[in-house]
Design goal:
Organism: Haplochromis burtoni (Burton's mouthbrooder)
Protein name: Basic leucine zipper ATF-like transcription factor 2
Strand order of the largest sheet: 1-2
Shape: rod-shaped
GO molecular function: DNA-binding transcription factor activity, RNA polymerase II-specific; RNA polymerase II cis-regulatory region sequence-specific DNA binding
Largest sheet: 2 strands, antiparallel
Strand content: 5-15%
Number of strands: 4
Structural class: alpha+beta
InterPro entries: AP-1 (IPR000837), bZIP (IPR004827), bZIP_sf (IPR046347)
Pfam families: bZIP_1 (PF00170)
Radius of gyration: 38 Å
Length: 104
């Protein structure tokens, strides 16, 4: 039989618990803390990986934008140099059977 000394007060409600119950509760609480810590660590790692991936994508997109701007500049310059020598009608027109038709 259990005697009064075998019980301890353990909780905010001053409910008597056996020492073995206290140990079990303490183990569960410790296990829960470890699981929460592990979950937070994994969440942080996933966020860091996502951030790194987004930075890499952002960098690649900035490089692509710079390359496209450079290409646009080269093509625009080339077109401007070509226009004085071009025999085709100016922008917005084209020839059909020797008839000048304006683009709508």
């Amino acid at each position: 039989t259990l005697k009064k000394k075998d019980y301890i007060n353990f909780s905010n409600h001053n409910t008597p618990y056996l020492q073995s119950e206290k140990n079990e509760w303490t183990k569960r609480r410790e296990k829960n803390r470890d699981a929460a810590r592990k979950s937070r660590r994994k969440q942080t790692e996933r966020a860091d990986e996502l951030h790194e991936s987004l930075e890499h994508s952002n960098s690649a997109l900035h490089k692509e934008i710079a390359a496209l701007k450079k290409e646009l500049h080269l093509l625009t310059t080339s077109l401007e140099r070509h226009e004085p020598y071009c025999r085709l009608p100016s922008k917005g027109t084209y020839l059909t059977d020797d008839v000048d038709v304006r683009m709508m």
